[in-house]
């Protein structure tokens, strides 16, 4: 009895309430069994209906009585005392609502992105470490004793050294005409003319190639104010595709320890487009150059789509 007073719950009423719940469940089960059986084992239809309705009403009244009894007993059970220790279960009411404070889902998403970033960074590091002189298009043919000394890997190189490297590369390839501009001080911009095939604008930071744009030989490469246009794409689809390939080549030729080798390798790769319209024209239907240059943007002759 002392325990009952301390807890604040009438244990006798609590026991009777459990029995009332069981009685209510039994009466409800009988109602559903009666509905399941329906009108069986009756001779006439009228007699079956009367007996089924009377039995069903008695079962509903039994359910009503059991429910009223359970409500009466629940009022006698009482409620636990507030001084009763709830231990850690009392902290359940302090949990935040998941919809209003989705901290866990945000942390889980950030953890997934962090793992993906670490995985891709490892792949990129392994690919960049594989770059070597063997993968560069070095066609100088000079011996190891005659190679110049390794220049420091830095973005700040003397302009005189950059001019000397560009002039030496220009002398290596007679069919390449390289013009050097410095519109913003020390940064160099190269206008590379490859025969009568294309013109490439190469934007550099010291000896590191930043970006390149390839246009047709007959396209204008200057703005209205006379400066080089380094942003406008070519109006021909074939040179837009060559620009995409040049951007990929910039990512392929990476050697920070010897930036002059990177520039020379890139120019060697660009020089390979000197036969851009020769081999395919022999294999496909002959098309005049005047018809080629008049192709509007977004369309390409059938023989150029296979380039």
Automatic annotation (TrEMBL):
Keyword annotations: Nucleus, Transcription, Transcription regulation
Any Gene Ontology biological process: regulation of transcription by RNA polymerase II
Gene Ontology MF terms: transcription coactivator activity
Pfam families cross-referenced by the UniProt entry: Med27
Alphabetized InterPro entries for the sequence: Mediator_Med27
Any one cellular-component term (Gene Ontology): mediator complex
Keyword Cell division in record: no
Entry's localization field: Nucleus
Record-stated family: Belongs to the Mediator complex subunit 27 family.
PANTHER family: 34 KDA TRANSCRIPTIONAL CO-ACTIVATOR-RELATED, MEDIATOR OF RNA POLYMERASE II TRANSCRIPTION SUBUNIT 27
Name of the protein: Mediator complex subunit 27
Organism: Eleginops maclovinus
